[in-house]
Amino acid sequence: MEQTAKPKKLWKKRLLTAAAVVAAVVLVLLAAVFALWHNEIFSLASMTLIRERDDAHLDGAVYRMDVKGGFYLDEFVAQGGAESDKELIDFITGKITKGLVKMNISETEIACSSFTAAAEDGSRLFARNYDFSKTNTCIVRTQANKGRHASISTVDLQFLGLDVEKDVDGLANRITCLAVPYIPLDGVNDAGVACGIYMTYQGGDSVPTDQRTDRPDLTSTTLLRLILDYADDVDEAVEIASSYDLHDSAKTSYHYMVADASGRSAILEWVGETNQTDTDGTKRELVVTYNDADSHIGQAEADSDYQWITNFIIQPGYYGSDGEKKGYDRYQRIGEELAQTGGMVADEAAAMEILSIVGRRSWNNDDSNSCTVHSVVYNLTDRSALWVPNEHYGEEGAVFRFDLGR
Question: For the chain (length 406 residues), average pLDDT per consecutive 10?
């Protein structure tokens, strides 16, 4: 009896020892994973569905993510940025997913509208419609980090190759969403600087800008990211844009509008000669049009300080006729609305009302698959956002407010 009991006790002891060793190894591995990916883990845990998809009405789902940490942006800048979508994805994959999840940036065709205005209480506003087709969207909030600004921005998750016909489910798809800080469409930072990106269809179709000098490099959305993180005002945003070679993403061409809480704004465009001859993206140069009396280029009156933008280059002489200007009808209507009050609106809701007038579902829409995916009014004074998905203006459960605070 005693001889039989001893081996059993010995085996039990060995099993307990082995279990303790395995538990210790697991704890060490978990600690290592947490040390390596703690920011990413917290970011993933914050991703929340805030509005469900409605396929019958071409409504994609809406998510929110609070990004923790610096998402390696300083390292991205230090390496000289990226001159292609592939280089950007290689950087993101290597840094954020450690090579475990492959990503891609999809081609897009974006028809958008935007304007700046002043509210009656003195607040400065930046309004934007994002026109595309049904897609899933993410509202992204980043932290202030080592001299960089906190921000709120909007991201189209289709840019990351995620299926527009499905919710963002599964760990691999969620991990892919960790790249969202690098693909903003519009946003505002805690200094009151807002920026948006808009397609331009240059060169007769859509020849991407692809500058080739000895400056460091940025793709389209990463330029917007640097402005949100590093710019204190319009001048610093322009300085950032001037310091890099721009390489348009997704085989399309873009321009930008940027504004700050002082009321200054500017349209940033990369142009060659005319729309018919501007077919070599390597030869384009940055042209900046400010909202002052010297450079309004036929937009507002000289004593007004608002600007607006759709999907064509605003430089005089670039087009042979107005018929070449994409989104010119929306451009005219926005201008008419703002001219009635000299660029003054009652409040954020009134600015949203102007966006609703040129919403894609109702405005000259001959494409049953297109819609205005989101409309947003950024308050540059309060550092906040009034945000509406899929033209559900004023509907309960479809109007969101996000606040950075002062």
Answer: 62 64 53 65 95 92 96 96 92 81 64 93 97 94 94 95 92 91 96 97 90 96 97 98 94 95 97 94 96 71 82 95 93 95 96 95 68 96 97 95 82
Tell which phi-psi region holds residue 343, choosing left (phi > 0), alpha (psi between -120 and 50) or beta: left
CA distance 57 to 87: 36
- C-alpha 218/C-alpha 226 separation (Å) is 9
C-alpha span between 318 and 202 (Å, rounded) = 10
Half-sphere exposure (Cβ direction) of 287: Cα atoms closer than 13 Å: 18
Q: Write out the chain in H/E/C secondary structure.
A: CHHHHHHHHHHHHHHHHHHHHHHHHHHHHHHHHHHHHHHHHHHHHHCEEEECCEHHHCECCEEEEEECCCCCHHHHHHCCECCCHHHHHHHHHHHCCCCCCCCCCCCCCCEEEEEEEEECCCCEEEEEEEEEECCCEEEEEECCECCECCEEEEEEHHHHCCCCCCCCCCHHHHHHHHHHHHCCCEEEECCCCEEEEEECCCCCCCCCCECCCCCCEEEHHHHHHHHHHHCCCHHHHHHHHHCCEEECCCCCCEEEEEECCCCCEEEEEEECCCCCCCCCHHHCEEEEEECCCCCCCCCCCCCCCCCEECCCCCCCCCCCCHHHCCCHHHHHHHHHHHHCCCCEECCHHHHHHHHHHCCCCCCCCCCCCEEEEEEEEEECCCCEEEEEECCCCCCCCCCEEEECCC
Cβ pair 228, 256 in contact under 8 A: no
Angle between helical axes of 234-242 and 220-230 (0-180°, round to 10): 140
Task: Identify residue 116 by its one-letter amino acid code.
Answer: T
Enter the pTM of the model: 0.90
Buried b (16+ CB within 10 A) or exposed e, 350-389: bbbbbbbebbbeebeeeeeebbbbbbbbbbbbbbbbbbbb
Q: How far is CA 112 from CA 40, 127, 207, in A?
A: 32, 11, 18
Structure tokens of 6? 């001893």
